[in-house]
């Protein structure tokens, strides 16, 4: 027998073509699109005003951008799914088109809600103007100058102290109340898992279920372990080359190649002529140690792409720098576009910077200890917001939670998921073999996530389909790996 629908569910059930409201929020048709996405996504968009500073509700207000992707049924469940984007600094609305395929099964029964966290996307985005790509000044002093300039440019439109995770959690609750839904399902990705856990602590009765993909424990000081996690991930990926005779004989030990290159480039960066990977136009720039380390870091997020690193490093060792330079420039440009750097600083400087400590053991890693030193220098001039007294405490309680980790994740390794799951008795942690960061769209994972959200029983999931996943073998030459 079909259950009767409440007024809330009736509002949520309105077909996309004719819908104008969800709860108390008026929407209008829009299209979500992002670079790299296979296709744009039809949606409904709206704006919700909130105080920038909740302690001063009559002062400046900011407008939050919201999108609603409608369920495929006229009788949807009354509890929508919220996607919480990563970063800190990514927009949920901009991130969604690239992962929309992972939500197709969810959309059979539930609406998906995309809220641009304050300071990202179109929610008073805190973006910093970037240097020209040809700039070669990578000093901490230059970074501080750029940070001060960014702060000056943003001060007219924002008090950056109020763009923290705690403020985002309050915004999320305000949107839930405006939608009139009694409970929601959370899907947090990377930094979004921190937002999800803080929301679960603040409003436990409002969370029906949570999926945490690329888990950030509340105890983690963001940035403190980046160098070590990347080193461990690359060591495991490079070891695959040394174990494979064709790769080892053709390319040697990739880590040895990296260290020789790093020493050379630290002493004398290369001036490189190349073609822009996006436009094809001729370009030139400096390829030094930071570009090399950044390239390895970005590649490591996706092991299928990192499989080409042994070959890329071998080419660099032979003096061929143009392809690597084009890749480094393209990746850095895409990161600058995807991340709102000012919002990232507001989060990190308020929640983590005071606990960051440079680790001498990181000095000889791929990433080095510069990352921590840069954050400390930038946060010395960036205004700090507040962090809740229980911020580092884990999320607890009986909320059903599914945690996802990639075996080779270079930033949120599986041990983080284990730490969070230990405090959640109705949780299950799935580790995807041979995979990297952000795995919700991998293999049969979308079906498992949809099934979990439908039944909220992680223990009952049949995850045997994940056993078919495996690491991508390293490229031994330009045509791939040996048979």
TrEMBL record:
<dbReference type="InterPro" id="IPR051601">
    <property type="entry name" value="Serine_prot/Carboxylest_S33"/>
</dbReference>
<dbReference type="GO" id="GO:0008233">
    <property type="term" value="F:peptidase activity"/>
</dbReference>
<dbReference type="GO" id="GO:0006508">
    <property type="term" value="P:proteolysis"/>
</dbReference>
<feature type="signal peptide">
    <location>
        <begin position="1"/>
        <end position="19"/>
    </location>
</feature>
<comment type="similarity">
    <text>Belongs to the peptidase S33 family.</text>
</comment>
<dbReference type="Pfam" id="PF00561">
    <property type="entry name" value="Abhydrolase_1"/>
</dbReference>
<dbReference type="InterPro" id="IPR029058">
    <property type="entry name" value="AB_hydrolase_fold"/>
</dbReference>
<keyword id="KW-0732">Signal</keyword>
<protein>
    <submittedName>
        <fullName>Alpha/beta hydrolase</fullName>
    </submittedName>
</protein>
<feature type="domain" description="AB hydrolase-1">
    <location>
        <begin position="80"/>
        <end position="440"/>
    </location>
</feature>
<dbReference type="InterPro" id="IPR000073">
    <property type="entry name" value="AB_hydrolase_1"/>
</dbReference>
<keyword id="KW-0378">Hydrolase</keyword>
<dbReference type="InterPro" id="IPR002410">
    <property type="entry name" value="Peptidase_S33"/>
</dbReference>
